[in-house]
């Protein structure tokens, strides 16, 4: 990470900017002028010049340390000049001046603490963003011969990444993709997702048989659980649902699918929606409970048909009445209105907006929406991984 990353982020985060320059000093300055005008128009029995202590307090909330100190000094000078201009019997005198001095000092200290906390927060967000881009790496247009679009929404509005994961990996034996959801939340789920993605990227590139890739993912989940137990974390039963898809080069009208206990993908075409077979696989990390590895399903997927994969943040989104989001019905109605909804970027945007509208913006779980289709000759690839965290 570059040393200037956090200061630059802090600079960009400053509010009240005009033409690229900060005007955060303007509200406290206007407050100072307002107090001066009001004090000049009050009777001697009701002086408000001591309210100048509010000026550095307001500056501490929105300005930098130098700006706060400058406004504090200006407040003290203004107090001295204005108070001295009144007859002696109406002057507030030293007690209120000391109040302004002490308030100014506390305001400068509070401003320093605020800026230190902001830098720490921005640094953590920068780290989280780097983690997100490592786990959910950006993919170039047409990556692996696929038009694709994706959006990730974190249930926690302050988070940048969670247990959802997805990727496309072109390799020696065609393009493979993986989408999944690690059980649980927090950093432990992120670690498991990163471990699975690392294994997928290597095995999907080298291995010829999709069953071998699926087997390596299962082993990686078990090894990760064992490692966590060795560290004393006690999450030996962590698992992940997922869908592994291969686009064979020799059969451009079919795909191979291994389902690890995940919601079956949808095939979206301008004419309608259909579901892929669910498969009989158990989630990754639970393979020991099955008598056989999950089957590889070979299903038709014609050029121009879009494969839609989502995590349970979509399928389990509820409205105020507790009803689940009717994903397939909504897409079917949208296609009837506009067949272009089947295009990956349009489809991802539609599902994202529909999910957020259905649950009122209150996501109960991390949400990933991923749409891909084979790239046709002359098509313009679309990548939309910048949906980010909510």
Give the gist of this structure.
This protein is α+β, with helices and mostly antiparallel strands. It is built from ten helices and twelve strands.
Structure description:
The protein is α+β, with helices and mostly antiparallel strands. The chain is built from ten helices and twelve strands. The strands form three sheets. The chain has a five-stranded antiparallel β-sheet. It has a five-stranded antiparallel β-sheet with strand order 4-5-6-7-10, with helices on one face. A two-stranded antiparallel sheet has the order 1-2. A hairpin with a 2-residue loop joins strand 8 and strand 9 (272-275). Helix 1 (5-13) crosses helix 5 (94-135) and helix 4 runs antiparallel to helix 5 (94-135). The longest helix is centred in the N-terminal third of the chain and has 42 residues, at 94-135. The model is unreliable at 1-13 and 379-390 (pLDDT under 50).
How many helices does DSSP assign? 10
In round numbers, the mean pLDDT is 85
**Through-space gap between termini:** 24 Å
Q: Which blocks of ≥5 consecutive residues have pLDDT under 50?
A: 1-13, 379-390
Along the chain, the helix and strand elements come as: HEEHHHHEEEHHEEEEEEHHHE
Characterize the overall form. elongated
For the largest beta sheet, what order do the strands appear in spatially? Answer: 3-12-11-8-9
What layout of secondary structure does this protein have?
Elements: H1 5-13, E1 17-18, E2 21-22, H2 26-40, H3 54-62, H4 65-84, H5 94-135, E3 146-153, E4 164-171, E5 174-182, H6 187-206, H7 210-230, E6 240-247, E7 254-260, E8 266-269, E9 272-275, E10 297-300, E11 306-310, H8 312-315, H9 327-337, H10 344-358, E12 367-374
Antiparallel strand pairs: 1-2, 3-12, 4-5, 5-6, 6-7, 7-10, 8-9, 8-11, 11-12
């Amino acid at each position: 990470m570059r040393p200037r990353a956090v200061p630059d982020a802090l600079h960009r985060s400053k509010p009240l900017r005009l033409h690229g320059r900060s005007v955060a000093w303007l509200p406290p300055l206007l407050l100072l002028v307002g107090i001066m005008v009001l004090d000049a128009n009050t009777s001697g029995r009701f002086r408000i010049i001591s309210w100048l202590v509010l000026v550095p307090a307001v500056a501490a909330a929105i300005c930098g340390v130098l700006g706060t100190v400058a406004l504090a000094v200006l407040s003290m000078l203004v107090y001295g000049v204005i108070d001295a201009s009144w007859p002696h019997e109406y002057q507030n005198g030293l007690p209120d001046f000391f109040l302004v001095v002490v308030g100014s000092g506390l305001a400068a200290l509070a401003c320093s603490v605020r800026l230190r906390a902001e830098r720490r927060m921005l640094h953590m967000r920068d780290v989280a963003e780097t983690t997100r881009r490592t786990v959910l790496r950006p993919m170039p247009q047409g990556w692996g011969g696929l038009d694709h679009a994706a959006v990730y929404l974190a249930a926690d509005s302050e988070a940048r990444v969670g247990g959802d994961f997805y990727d496309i990996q072109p390799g020696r034996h065609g393009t493979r993709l993986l989408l999944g959801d690690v059980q649980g939340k927090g950093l432990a789920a992120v670690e498991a997702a990163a471990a699975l993605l690392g294994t997928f990227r290597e095995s999907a590139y080298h291995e010829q048989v999709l069953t071998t890739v699926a087997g390596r993912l299962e082993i990686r989940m078990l090894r990760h659980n064992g490692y966590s137990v060795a560290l004393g974390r006690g999450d030996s039963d962590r698992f992940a649902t997922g869908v592994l898809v291969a686009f064979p080069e020799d059969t451009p009208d079919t795909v191979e699918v291994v389902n690890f206990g995940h919601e079956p993908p949808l095939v979206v075409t301008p004419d309608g929606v259909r579901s892929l077979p669910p498969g009989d696989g158990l989630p990754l990390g639970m393979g020991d409970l099955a008598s056989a590895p999950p089957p590889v399903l070979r299903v038709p997927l014609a050029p121009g048909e879009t494969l839609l994969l989502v995590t349970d943040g979509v399928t389990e989104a509820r409205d105020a009445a507790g009803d689940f989001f009717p994903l397939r019905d909504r897409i079917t109605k949208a296609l009837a209105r506009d067949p272009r909804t089947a295009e990956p970027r349009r489809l991802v945007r539609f599902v994202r907006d529909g999910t957020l509208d259905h649950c009122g913006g209150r996501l109960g779980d991390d949400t990933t929406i991923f749409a891909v289709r084979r790239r046709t000759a002359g098509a313009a690839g679309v990548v939309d991984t910048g949906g980010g965290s909510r």
